[in-house]
From TrEMBL:
<keyword id="KW-0328">Glycosyltransferase</keyword>
<protein>
    <submittedName>
        <fullName>Uracil phosphoribosyltransferase</fullName>
    </submittedName>
</protein>
<feature type="domain" description="Phosphoribosyltransferase">
    <location>
        <begin position="9"/>
        <end position="187"/>
    </location>
</feature>
<dbReference type="GO" id="GO:0016757">
    <property type="term" value="F:glycosyltransferase activity"/>
</dbReference>
<keyword id="KW-0150">Chloroplast</keyword>
<dbReference type="Pfam" id="PF14681">
    <property type="entry name" value="UPRTase"/>
</dbReference>
<keyword id="KW-0808">Transferase</keyword>
<dbReference type="InterPro" id="IPR029057">
    <property type="entry name" value="PRTase-like"/>
</dbReference>
<dbReference type="InterPro" id="IPR000836">
    <property type="entry name" value="PRTase_dom"/>
</dbReference>
<keyword id="KW-0934">Plastid</keyword>
Amino acid sequence: MSLNIYHISHPIIQILSTYISNQRNNDKFSYEYYYRYTGFLLIYETLRKYIKLEAIYIKQLYSVKNLNVLNPKNKYLICTNISQTYHIITDIKSIVPNIKILNINYKDNKNIKNSIDEMKISLKDTKIFIVEKKTNDENILNLIQYLKDEKHISLSNINLTSIFINHQTLNKLGSKYPELKVYTTKIIYNNKK
């Protein structure tokens, strides 16, 4: 089985990610906003497959009011290093108010365990979204391995969302976790952005 890679090709996301990849940090203010909106739209594209709405009908005196709300039984968790992805996840609560955001350093299993244990939530039946600006090293494997082996999370409940991802990292993810779903705007070859 091969890795499920979803290359997000929405024109607005492609324009924003092209600007980011060609920008040389001359205008930091604009650069941060482009990351912010690219991340917001990328996360939106990732989440829309998993968010389930419930229809509520409220009978009024002369009519019926129809509301769509998030199912409170569904749980969502974003795992990210907030110091690296703050601009990306800033507005995510406006899409999914009940989503939890876990600040996590996944360089080693001890940090991963401590971060997840401090959160004090059950990961059973939780949709987990790992969010990164640029995935270009093997540290992501530590987090996925911990979630799969220690917390017994099915790979069908784990998604990696990254604006840019290195092809070598994708190869390693594909060989170790072929069922994993990866969402990205651009695959980077030879560490060039």
